[in-house]
């Protein structure tokens, strides 16, 4: 029996375990990336390990999230990251060089390599045939130190693409169709692999759009073959030597196959407030639009921007619409400036933002009250834009640009002949905004500079024999890491200050949560299905740890957040009978008796509700390594203990 692309990538990097779905495997990591909203904490963790120099083939620190500098905090964090990376062998991508996933695709990603990043959209790298996985910052720190990265061996899903996209239909519509079919939790425990004749019709930026939003499926990652299209892209980037062919074996067996005829797709949109709430643009109708935002790591490539510029050329943005455009990298922005496309955007009335994440993470450009905002981004969770009652729709660049002109949600097929945009034979290569690290000889003399906003990460304790605490919070299904630990311009600058950040934990769900935790000193959270979906931010685990959360009991968990909870030493448990969720009320006193010995021995865990007198059976699927981590109080404690041994 042959191998899928995902299986080949795992097999070639396998350090421990067997490739049996559902069991834990350890893989060697070739490359890592961080961004500044998660990077400061990741590098504090790396320092705590005492490793002098990274042991990966390549590690890059990007500054792309916290670029709105309204105080000293972000600038101090950037200075810390620049100096700590210089000292420890990590490349530093300066503010303005671009969004981490766009730049990594352009300049650093290599087919056949493994990449983990402290950002959930790291699977963008699957567009050029990488095994690229989003992870918590602590996992990235361990990988930079030469440690193995562990995942549950995924099932393999093949999305078989046939036909060719019609004019005005985009790669964004492909992934929206996959989300419509699979849902935001349909990819959990799976690698989504794209194949079929239709793959050859998609450029690398189009493939990257699709793998980028695989994160919204809850998938471990998504991946395309590395073929002649990939080779042409790398050649145009001056990196033809980085190309290697990668494809599935003819007799590879998949756990699931999804068929999509590209020629049958129409322009679509994900409606508020979930990426899988998908309908065609014509079904939704011509709703009034207040704002349009184009960019993000999903749709900020040169080809996306050129399509937008062609649609806007000679037109004027509707007077009732605010149009903001964020080119994905310095390379993209420079080429737009030189070929005249940037001028066409400006002349049409677009507001040009810097090459950064910006509005996607609530960093500026929040819509008006109850405003309708069309965005080419990847998430439309409630409140993520910075406006609590905004109505966010996820659309392709073509739909976004067309709607910016008309003032209503518009099917771009009504505009006539679609512009034809081709990939350039040569991209402008200018890596001056990437600062290389000091040499091993120079490194000892590099001073790491820390600002007053940088506080130590919270200390976790070894697991006690019993946990007794109240159900300090009860939440419903599909709670995101934005609910747990919001982003946005007011909060992101404090990502390196856990004590201050704790004031905002779960504020959208329960404004009194933080104060209640500090008063009680400890607690257990009760959650619904798909708890912790969305961003990879480990702050959604570190802040609850700081607030005394000992366990989260839910119907089910999103992959990255579950791993982050274990890394933090917080126990993630699920209900054996999901109906037991309904029997617990916020404020009930709960006990996990003999929890340490039961997990240590792999025995059944019972939750006692001393308020009602009921008992509930709980489930867990921890590997021996994860058990040892939880018993030690988290990954950092576990790593230190192993280092001593």
Description:
The chain is an alpha/beta fold. It is 29% helix and 19% strand. It has 21 helices and 27 strands. Strand 15 (291-294), helix 10 (302-312) and strand 16 form a beta-alpha-beta unit. Helix 2 crosses helix 3, helix 17 runs parallel beside helix 18 and helix 20 crosses helix 21. It is globular and about 70 Å long. The two termini are 41 Å apart.
Give the averaged pLDDT, no decimals.
Answer: 95
Oligomerization state: single chain
Helix content: 25-40%
Low-pLDDT runs: none
Q: Largest sheet at a glance?
A: 7 strands, mixed, barrel
Number of helical elements: 21
Strand content: 15-25%
Please provide the count of β strands.
Answer: 27
Output the radius of gyration: 24 Å
Strand order across the biggest sheet? 21-22-23-24-27-26-25
End-to-end separation? 41 Å
Shape: globular
Structural class: alpha/beta
